Amino acid sequence: MSTPLLQARSIARVYETNRGLFGRSAGVRAVDDVSLQLDRGDTLGIVGESGSGKSTTGRVVLGLEPPSAGDVLFDGQPIAAHGTPAWRQSRTRMQMIYQDPLASLDRRLSVAAQVREPLDIHHIGTVEERDARVNDLLQAVGLSQSVTQRFPHELSGGQRQRVVLARALITNPSLLVCDEPVSALDVSIQAQVVNLLTDLQAELGIAMLFISHDLRVVRQVSRRIAVMYLGRIVEEGDADDLLAKPEHPYTRALVSAAPSPGRRMADRQMLRGEPPNPANRPNGCAFHPRCPVAIARCRSETPELLDLGGRLVACHLAAADAGLAPHAATVPDRAKTQQVEAFAP
Ligand SMILES: Nc1ncnc2c1ncn2[C@@H]1O[C@H](COP(=O)(O)OP(=O)(O)OP(=O)(O)O)[C@@H](O)[C@H]1O
Ligand code: SF4
Ligand SMILES: [Mg+2]
What we know:
Elements: E1 6-17, E2 26-38, E3 43-47, H1 54-61, E4 69-74, E5 77-78, H2 85-90, E6 94-97, H3 101-104, H4 111-121, H5 127-140, H6 157-169, E7 175-179, H7 187-204, E8 207-211, H8 215-221, E9 224-229, E10 232-238, H9 239-244, H10 249-257, E11 306-307, E12 312-313, H11 316-321
Parallel strand pairs: 3-8, 3-9, 6-7, 7-8
Antiparallel strand pairs: 1-2, 1-4, 4-5, 9-10, 10-12, 11-12
Bound molecules: adenosine-5'-triphosphate, iron/sulfur cluster (SF4) and magnesium ion.
Adenosine-5'-triphosphate is lined by residues 15, 17, 28, 30, 48, 50-56, 213, 278.
């Protein structure tokens, strides 16, 4: 079996704050025991409400922030520490695209200079080769010659995100982490940029971690989906299956609340209760204060992420429905969960 491109093994990220009792430092566990795996050319979507730890997970897997626990392997090797020469070198192979293209671009550089800059920084190719590659990529992302000498403030939002995409792809990365890449764009432009992203991802065989709160967009882009709640993955599986038949009550609520063609607003079931706050994590299952089917056990026992026949789910009831005795099986080793396992009813 080939080495996965990206492996996050039980990563946690704790932020120290000074808002604890009597001003004492209190930790905010933004990401807690998250394991992810991504093969070359594969796509994984991460969904969840605001504050569920999606962006933090993205930053940790790219080495932009160190994990407080666990580790991240890229191509089988531990990811280099942020800012080191080894980390800078690895950045040619992994890129991030953020929500706000203007913040990602250097306002003083023209479109062409912007896209070309990573090649200059890393001394990749001759001058002629760099020019040719910039032209090819600008064409690939659908930017005409007429914009190449413009500056970021002279472009539309969609054009800016195309420049960001061209710049991210210029070093031929094997991994793209996209954090809400189209959320700031008009809906009509969103579809164009998402189509472009999926076409280029498939054509170039790039692995992609796609973070969004928009299930519609995530479904379009991802082969698999991981659902996060309060820093943890609560469900993960094949994108179409998971959205058609969500097993975790939180995923069911997300799917039910999402707008979809033909479904009236009145038929959508909105998530009730307070949105998640990692500074005040409930005991037991973190979702229990909002869960419509919670049982007594949910208030005291944290459900483990179990493999229920190819779907990973962290819910006592889902495990019981699958005929899995409590605590009968766990998934300590992520590699094992790749195999579809059948449990006796
Ligand atoms: N640098 C930081 N210092 C302290 N807390 C932080 C820091 N960064 C993130 N957090 C907290 O960690 C939690 C997870 O944040 P994160 O940005 O990963 O969530 P998210 O799922 O990306 O949310 P959104 O959908 O709003 O982007 C939040 O409660 C956030 O307030
Ligand atoms: S473990 Fe309990 S509270 Fe948590 S999602 Fe399942 S049923 Fe709901
Ligand atoms: Mg975020």
